[in-house]
Every structure is written in structure tokens, then in C-alpha cells.
Amino acid sequence: MSVVVSTDPGRLGFDPARLARIDEHFARYVDDGRLAGWQIVVTRRGEIAHSATYGQRDREAGTPVESDTLWRIYSMTKPITSVAAMMLWEEGRFELNDPVSRWLPEFADVRVYDRGSVLKPYTVPATEPIRIWHLLTHTAGLTYGFAQVSVVDGLYRAAGFDLGVPPGTDLAAASAGLARLPLLFQPGTSWNYGVSTDVLGRLVEVISGQSLAAFFTERILRPLGMTDTRWWAEPADAKRLAALYAPHPATGQAVRADRIGQAALAEPSWHSGGGGLVSTAADYHRFTQFLLRGGELDGVRLLGPRTLRFMTRNHLPGGRDLASFSPEGFSETVLDGIGFGLGFAVVLDPVPSRVPSSVGEFYWGGMASTAFWVDPVEEITALLFTQLMPSSTYPLRSQLRQLVYSALVD
Length: 410
Fold this sequence. Notes:
It comes from Micromonospora robiginosa. By secondary structure, the protein is α+β, with helices and mostly antiparallel strands.
């Protein structure tokens, strides 16, 4: 499968000369060494208006980015896990207000960080159970060890939950281990990005009776024709996998980050619903078209359209945005004017962020600077793939929006 321009962009309301600015702009990142390579796909009304690759998937090997390049999508796994959970919700298997402990008893008596240090933390009982909607909206009080912002982050790292899990840990054991760590805040009282979607993946396993990998393959990936999305790149496909890079602290040049990047070449001990997948532009394009079409693609329906509209509304209490409901900033998205739904960031008002978009647009990205968005108003989807971590290094996502929307002239 590949992603090629399927029609005259002008017929879709785009100015081709303005679309060409996308490639000219992002080529500069490669030409001056800040990125190794990239792939970008823009569609409207289900047709591909712009598709381009530039640079190298592995700069040291001299291999170019190609249409079938495999990319670590990291947190772009989360929307797929959220879809999996809501498929079970549509079957009546749970309600969003249900306590997570109904299926994962390890979360029955969670405690919340109150004060103190990593060496001597003080905790208090949770006054509210973690509910399933808390996991979907990142309001459960769970965090990431690699965030390195709070004392609770430090407790995660001390327990072996940094960029991954303790060696040999599967998803069930990871869920149990995370439940023993204190929450950052009382459930439902704030927003914090963390391992909520990994716990949600474990919930999918328990409720469905299948491993998360099996559920993904049988219920989502195969039906949607996402045949190149997997948990690791096997030896036969290893050369298609883009190398992972990080900026040199002094020069800003992209340098290889093999210590982290090599993990995608071996079968993982756990299936991270929050960040475990490797995919291609063609595959994730199909996923975004499924979202744009309200839960259906090529005659295969996984979700009802009203469910998808419900998922992409702002579910933060009081209708607040992330700027007013999050204790810390976060690199995957701007916070002003942005809400959060059931698995996606949602644009409430594009003006406060100073980034063009439509009210109701939903999106997310990954740690290695990948990103996607779906704009139901303009019927646009956009995909950005590269492999530079962290995603906060350069404003690639906002710049892509700027260039795409300025090319729309109808």
C-alpha cells in the first residue's frame, strides 16, 4: 500500500503552489541537519491532495524515506487503544462511569501523593475511584516517569517505569505495578499525561478475554486493512524501519538514539496501549479516514458515528481547556483553547493557541515528533512522520497546520 496524490488538489480547494510550500519548508529541516527525513500526507474529502517524502530514513546507512517506511508512532497508539475500548463500550460491556477496579482489582485502594520526597513520600486515600472515563481523558492521576516534573514521576522511575517497564514485565504485571504507585492528584480533579492508556489497554484485555495484540489485529487492524502496523519490526522488515534521532545539545543536529530506537527491532515483553506500535503512512492514513468517516471505512464499521462524535467532544469537567485544568505544560499539544475527549485532544477555540484549525478538530502525536489531525469541518486529515525525540524540539506540528490551512483557498 502507498499514499499517492489521487486528484488535482485544486479540485479539493487547495492551491498547488501553496501546498508546495510544505515541502520547501520542511526540506530545510533536513538540509541543515535538524531532521534526517520526513513523510507528509494531506487529504480532503477522502482524497489525497498532497503526499511527499524527503531525506533519509537512516542517514548513516544512506537509505531514503520511501512510501513504505516504518515509523515508531509511540503515542499515536493511544487513539487506537481508545477506539478498542469504545468498541467494547458499544457492546454494553462497561459504562464510562464504572470504577476501573471492577475489572482491575489492583486499583481498588489507590492512594494519592500529598507531600514529601521520593525517599519519603506521604500519601492519602483516594476520595474518588479511578473511573474508565478518567483513563480515556488522562484525568486519573497517573503519570509518566520520564516526565521528570513531579515527585510522583520520580517514584515511577524508582520502580522501573521510565521510558518503559521493568524488564520482562507484561501488560498485566505492569498494570499491577502501576496501581501500587501513588496518584499525582485525586481522580477527575486535573489533567496529566501518563500511562492511563496503558492501563486502558489492560482493561481491554480483561473485558474482551483477548490479549491487546490479538484484539488490535482481529478487531481493528485487519478489518481496516492496516496490514503494516505491528508491535515491532521483524528481521525481514528491519531495513524499512527509520532510525531514531535526538538533537545534539550543542549543535541541534540530529544524532542517532539507538539505545531507545533499537527496542523497536525486538518483540516487547508487554503490549503498550499507550505507545507500542510501529506503522506506515499508508496504514495510519486508513485510520484517519476511518475517523473522518465517522467510524467506517470501505464498508467496515467499527464504531457508530454518534460514538465518534461523543469521543471527540471535550470531556474535561466544566468544559475547561487544558491550560486551566493541567498542572504542567506538555509538549504533545498547546494547552490554550484545547480540550480533551475520549482519546484525542479537541480544538475548542483556535485563537488562544495562535494556530489555525477548526473548532471540533481532533488530533494527537507521538514522542518522536509524529502527528496527525482530523478536521471534520473542512474534511481534512494530515499526517506527519519523522523520528526525532522529544517532540517538543521543533514546532513541526503547528507549522504544518499553518502551511496546510494557508493553502486552502476555496
